[in-house]
Amino acid sequence: MTGNKRDDEAILYCESCGVAVDENIEYYEEDGMCDECSFVCSHCGDRESIDNMYMDNRDEAFCERCTSQCERCGKTCSEHSIDVHISGDYVFCRHCTEYVYFCASCGTWIDHESMYTCGTCEKYYCESCYFDSGSHDCDNNDYGLAHADYCPSFLRYKPSYDDSLLYHGIELEVDGVCDMRGFIDKLNDLDGEEKMFYLKEDGSLTEDGLEIVTHPMTIQYHREYMPWEDLFQLIDSYADTYWIQSRCGLHIHSSKKYYTKLTGSMKANLNMFDLAIYKLIYVFDRFWPELYNFSRRKSVSYCNRPTLLEKECRDTLSIRYGVDSVPKRKLTRKDVVRSHRNKGKYMAIRQTSNTIETRLWCGTGKLNELMASLEMTNGLHKTIKNTRLKKIKQMNWKDLCDSVMQYDEPECLKSYLEGRDLLCA
Fold first, then answer.
1. pTM value?
2. Which residues of the chain form CATH 3.30.590?
3. CB 380 within 8 Å of CB 270
4. Distances (CA, A) of 80 to 56, 139, 167, 321
5. Per-residue pLDDT tens for 96-116?
6. What fold, for 144-306+343-425?
7. Would you call the peptide bond into 159 cis, given omega within 30 degrees of 0 as the criterion?
């Protein structure tokens, strides 16, 4: 570790940014930069100045040589990022991906203002293919359910999108349905023109199961406008509660941008988000017995426990990036978050491109259990955002519950915790 020496011969300074280099800052002599003003490209592995960094939506950084220009808007993006949509020679940035569609028949890309949607199969077509009925492919499955990997191109935020609000999209798995056609028709009638939810296949369920997925809504909107009561009456009429409780999950996606500031820099927002994820991992790891009891789960095969154990985090990083890429020093919070992000889908909490998914809660055929799970998730996120890590580490389970219940009047959660004797855990 060497750098420029100034008046004080005992202090080293980075040749690039001038920051004082000490035992907490690594300096890379061959590159003439420290880790405060540089980064390592996620694709080519070269160290570059942070001024030439492009960051994708999964916090992966790319250098200028590993980036391209978006076909639609011309902005910089990386074709090596999984958030970027690539089709043939075309590359689209993460923003334009929301507004670009590909014709299901001829494959050409279409701007959102020029696309046509088939009312039967809900696939997208260019103008010429849309009016050619022979180009349509409407036989996606017997019931017209969307594929398990389907995600709407336009998310209907309720109310309209606002970075300062916390939105939750709910995935409710339902199985053991006695009359799938009748059940789906009733659900579609219930949704009507509001389009608050959509229906999907799910590979973990039987052929008599489906997944009901809501668009992102604030907790107030879920309570006041989402027709949960009517929906659960349909579930009670058509589905087997035993199947729901034994093999179904309740997954809640919460908006990632709730943890960022509109005026903050990209680096500041990334640090803020990493800290939030670290605090979530800490809470789920420390209070796992209580949260598992709360969840009603009988198995964690689809929602494994997150951990802060350094050995396990190092093992994950070694598998993902190679042994030589794992720092020899003590792992930082950022290293732990990066390790957790690479543990795969089946974790109790999971990071996606735009959301933080809570997967621990068990499926349910009861409205009060769903609302209690939603209120717990909502309160946990607001506690994480508004409470310092030091204070969270001083909490016991009762303190955590008290903190969660101070947000948005969670009456169902309070009754649920009292009914399961979890306030005294």
1. 0.69
2. 144-306+343-425
3. no
4. 10, 33, 29, 15
5. 777 787 787 777 788 877 777
6. Creatine Kinase; Chain A, domain 2 (3.30.590)
7. yes
